[in-house]
Amino acid sequence: MRKQLRLSGSGGQGVITAAIILAAAAVDEGKEAVQSQSYGPEARGGASKSEVIIDDAPIYHPHVIVPDLVLAMTQKAADKYYKDLLNPDGLLVLDEQLVPNVPDFPHVVRIPITKIAVEKVGKPLFANIVALGALVRLTGIVSFDAIKKAVANRVPPHTVDANMKALELGWEAAAAKV
């Protein structure tokens, strides 16, 4: 049941944090998981990607070879990261407002991730958790309970309620796309 996921965006959007949380949720469920990341020299605004591999069997190579899912939170990320060998049966998930030019790919899901974070949670800071809720709903890679626990364990205590709301909103936004 190996799944390879690439989460991409710009520095500061939280794709690395989201990948760490996803990997933690998988481990909590007894699965194997590895997470890696890369980002440009800029602290904020540069290209950023994080990869997660989740499997029931041991994982010997920690980097994604053929992603089954690519999340692109910006146009630059979509242009840069989806093309390199996304599984033809894979899923490309885009932030609807920040990726206006939809790449030509058969399986694309567009969700207004950042818009949901701003309008319903109050800050774009929560977009990564909205995305995480959507990804879990779209893939079923971990249970919703596992991702909730992982989020609660990884975010600052004073933000748990807002992050739970963001996670649920992402989960709900993906319901119509499944």
Automatic annotation (TrEMBL):
Q: Which SUPFAM superfamilies match?
A: Pyruvate-ferredoxin oxidoreductase, PFOR, domain III
- Enumerate the UniProt keywords alphabetically: Oxidoreductase
For the Pyruvate/ketoisovalerate oxidoreductase catalytic domain, which residue ranges apply?
A: 11-171
Q: Which residues form a coiled coil?
A: none
Superkingdom: Bacteria
Instruction: Cite the GO molecular-function annotations of the record.
Output: oxidoreductase activity, acting on the aldehyde or oxo group of donors, iron-sulfur protein as acceptor
Q: Which Pfam families match?
A: POR (PF01558)
Task: Write the protein's name.
Answer: 2-oxoacid:ferredoxin oxidoreductase subunit gamma
